[in-house]
Amino acid sequence: MRTFFITATDTDAGKTMVAAALMKVIPGAHYWKPVQTGDDRDLRTVQQFSGRSSEFFHPGRTFSQPLSPHRAAELDGQSINREDLDRAFAEVRDSLLRLDRTAGPRWPETRKSGGMDQNDTAQSVLFVEGAGGILVPLNRAELWPDWLKDKDLSLILVCRTGLGTINHSLLSVEAIRSRGLKLAGLVFFGPENEDNQRTVADFSGCPVIARVEMGEDNRSVLIHDLDEALLR
User: Fold this and answer.
1) Which domains are seen in the chain, by residue range?
2) Contact, 175 vs 204, CB < 8 A?
3) Is the dihedral of CA 42, 31, 27, 228 positive or negative?
4) What per-residue string of b and e applies to 149-183 under the rule 16 or more CB within 10 Å gives b?
């Protein structure tokens, strides 16, 4: 099973819409949001925009205030620790591994023309969406990377396309690499900005998985130039 942790350069950089776009084009994928803060429910948003049924979604812990996970948990009289997240993560992964033992090919027929062997064995894809940016704290002693280290997963970094993205993106890539985490690639969210996207990719040396943007009616999500090979 392949597992990807979707993080971002900042809050509201587009993680949820990127998750929705990926869920929309990879029918066998599953989604888990381990920590949700505030009234917004990203799981419901991803389900709505991807058009996927509820069986592909796995609920996590929710907190009432739209704040960093550590503070939202405190205000609700609770706490977040790695052990609890580890147990929840194991439960989600175990459920998908059981599916893999009985499922068919992991990619639908329409994608076999892209080079995937038709006899390739079944393998689930799990997208785990973080809360906030990569260095958001889970509690007063641990950041997201403290939980992510030693996990069998790769990170997808969501970067804005507009002004300011170069600095924010390169700092985030540096933070990820300095902690020894595996970075699968970048997804840019927003209108096409060829120079910003190329500059971030060139200076970071990171592959670009796709670009995602909202549809004109803001009721759909569009994905461009998806490199499926980076998600296998």
Assistant:
1) 2-231 (3.40.50.300)
2) no
3) positive
4) eebebbbbbbbbbeeebbebbbebbebbeeeebeb
Residues 80/69, Cβ–Cβ less than 8 Å: yes
β-pairing, 2-8 vs 35-37, is: unpaired
**Nearest alpha-carbon partner for 127 in 47, 13, 213, 61:** 47
- Check if the beta carbon of residue 15 is closer than 8 Å to that of residue 6: yes
The total of other beta-carbon atoms located within 10 Å of residue 229's CB is 11
Q: Write the pLDDT tens digit of every residue in 137-158.
A: 999 999 999 999 999 999 999 9
d(CA 196, CA 161): 6
Q: Which residues are annotated as catalytic?
A: 33
DSSP code, position 137: B
Dump pLDDT digits (tens) for 156-208. Answer: 999 999 999 999 999 999 999 999 999 999 999 999 999 999 999 999 999 99
Residue type, 135: L
What is the spatial distance between Cα 202 and Cα 220, in angstroms, rounded to a whole number? Answer: 30
DSSP label at residue 8: E
- Characterise 218 by phi-psi region: left (phi > 0), alpha (psi -120 to 50), beta (else): left
Name which of 205, 158, 218 is nearest 186 in CA terms.
Answer: 158
Residues, the chain, total?
232
**In contact, 231 and 125? CB cutoff 8 Å:** yes
SS3 content of the chain, % helix, strand, coil (to 5): 40, 20, 40
CA atoms of 63 and 71, how far apart (whole Å): 10
